[in-house]
């Protein structure tokens, strides 16, 4: 199934890039409709039901797209997923689409945990530091965890950068145990 997800995500990313669409806006719309499908059991059942004709499913989609103001390319993409009976993969496709866009546009997602709320200039400095280390522009999502005591822990992809006080204390403890 992963290859099917990748194929659809790459194809939609191709459309967004080749037509020079606003990638962030298109991604936000895709995430919004994905959330709608995930949260609405009735909508999922209608779009997944083989007994309901595709034109009726697309009519529902058109109504949603018009009301929400979704772009035509996104509407068409969702219609393809409905027609090809791949709508159940929408959440995974949208997640892969986000990764694909980030890769093509040179962005990396970072999950940053700090002990306290960072000021905007501190966030900018941290994102710049992560950008220098990774060679990519950083889109950071922040969370707080008082247990790290101070500093920050950043996860970019599968790499963790631990600059927390708790992490430093753990490294010192390991050094003392090993010596």
Walk me through what this model shows:
- There is one protein chain.
- By secondary structure, this protein is of the alpha+beta class.
- It contains eight helices and four strands.
- The protein has a four-stranded mixed beta sheet with strand order 2-1-3-4.
- A hairpin with a 2-residue loop joins strand 3 and strand 4.
- The longest helix has 17 residues, at about 1-20.
- The radius of gyration is 21 Å and the shape is elongated.
- The model has no long low-confidence stretch (mean pLDDT about 95).
Label the structural class: alpha+beta
Order of strands across the main sheet = 2-1-3-4
Compute the average pLDDT: 93
Q: How big a fraction of the residues is strand?
A: 5-15%
Task: Give the CATH architecture of the largest domain.
Answer: Orthogonal Bundle
Number of beta strands: 4
Q: SSE string, helix = H, strand = E? A: HHHHHHEHEEEH
Text of the CATH class of the largest domain: Mainly Alpha
Distance between the termini: 49 Å
């Amino acid at each position: 199934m992963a290859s099917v997800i990748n194929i659809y995500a790459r194809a939609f990313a191709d459309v967004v890039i080749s037509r020079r669409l606003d990638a962030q806006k298109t991604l936000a719309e895709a995430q919004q409709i994905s959330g709608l499908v995930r949260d609405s059991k009735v909508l999922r059942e209608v779009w997944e039901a083989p007994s309901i004709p595709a034109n009726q499913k697309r009519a529902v989609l058109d109504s949603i797209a018009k009301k929400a103001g979704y772009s035509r390319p996104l509407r068409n993409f969702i219609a393809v997923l409905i027609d090809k009976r791949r709508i159940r993969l929408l959440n995974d496709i949208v997640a892969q689409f986000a990764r694909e866009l980030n890769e093509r546009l040179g962005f990396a997602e970072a999950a940053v945990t700090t002990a306290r709320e960072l000021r905007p200039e501190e966030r900018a400095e941290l994102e710049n530091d992560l950008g220098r280390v990774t060679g990519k522009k950083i889109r950071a999502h922040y969370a707080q965890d008082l247990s790290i005591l101070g500093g920050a822990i950043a996860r970019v992809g599968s790499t963790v950068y631990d600059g927390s006080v708790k992490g430093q204390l753990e490294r010192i403890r390991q050094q003392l145990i090993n010596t």
